[in-house]
Amino acid sequence: MPLMMSEEAFENDESDYQTLPRARVNQKQRGLGWFILGGWKIVCCSCCEWLAHICRRKKELKARTVWLGCPEKCEEKYPRNAIKNQKYNVFTFVPGVLYQQFKFFLNLYFLVVACSQFVPALKIGYLYTYWGPLSFVLAVTMVREAVDEVRRYRRDKEMNSMLYGKLTVRGKVQVKSSDIQVGDLIIVEKNQRIPADMIFLRTSEKSGSCFIRTDQLDGETDWKLKVAVACTQRLPALGDLFSISAYVYAQKPQLDIHSFDGNFTREDCEPAIHESLSIENTLWASTVVASGTVIGVVIYTGKETRSVLNTSHAKNKVKTPHPHLCFICMTSPC
């Protein structure tokens, strides 16, 4: 009996070996069919996502030590303080607009239908009934996007060209907003917009504080009280900011506009002076000075400012062409 069981076992094993190659062939066929019927899309999308992730990989944001009035002492290279809201350039305008239109399935569907009319076996009706409405919608979209791009360019140019007072060892000089660097000492007058994220050092107000309007930052129209660093506010003259050895330690750029952690240190005296910094000592970019004149040291510029980090770029407005093409499916040869 044990012998018979073992023979059956061997017989079963032999049949398994005979069917195994066929199973492998079927598995390969299924794999090839899966790839042809749609698997290639998954593979391509995965590769594109990986490449896009590599290309979009952002520089790691870090905390920083900023010396007052000494941009050259910065340990790293920080972004330019330039505002750029344009979505395209001369080379990417047409491809970019077309991509924004046809990345949606419905728009892409009507494009494929229109292209199919060049095939005689699939042709239904006249070409202009397909390409006329589609071309019209694309032309209107491109004109609208071009006008919006020009407006954005002009606004950015105006903001980047605004002049501010910058304190140097030789006195006050005028500097464009786009040329402001981390570590610069910037003077902002009343009703003037703050060009970059700064630590509030001095004010013309005797109270050592000022009010700012934050409507462009958080959408609120109220005023917020800001307090200057006590050590620098007590200095007898404005030029004394260059006679001391002091720096600000600032946390890495954050999204939260309602909090800040940092320290102010003056090390040229005994003992060294240390002051904790909070949100009350900050002057965020895009806010407006509502009282007095303020002087601050720049700690974040450009795309690292709170206002830019919290900006969600508007998506392209898509005008779907299908209302103009809905008659395509009903068109029949005459």
UniProtKB/TrEMBL annotation:
Pfam families: E1-E2_ATPase, PhoLip_ATPase_N. Keywords: Membrane, Transmembrane, Transmembrane helix, Transport. Its main location: membrane. Residues 74-131 form the P-type ATPase N-terminal domain. SUPFAM superfamilies: Calcium ATPase, transduction domain A (SSF81653), Calcium ATPase, transmembrane domain M (SSF81665). GO terms for biological process: endocytosis; phospholipid translocation; retrograde vesicle-mediated transport, Golgi to endoplasmic reticulum. The chain crosses the membrane at residues 32-52, 128-147. Signal peptide: none annotated. It comes from the Eukaryota. The keyword Nucleotidyltransferase does not apply. GO terms for cellular component: endosome; plasma membrane; trans-Golgi network. Residues 172-306 form the P-type ATPase A domain. This is ATPase phospholipid transporting 9B. It comes from Paramormyrops kingsleyae.
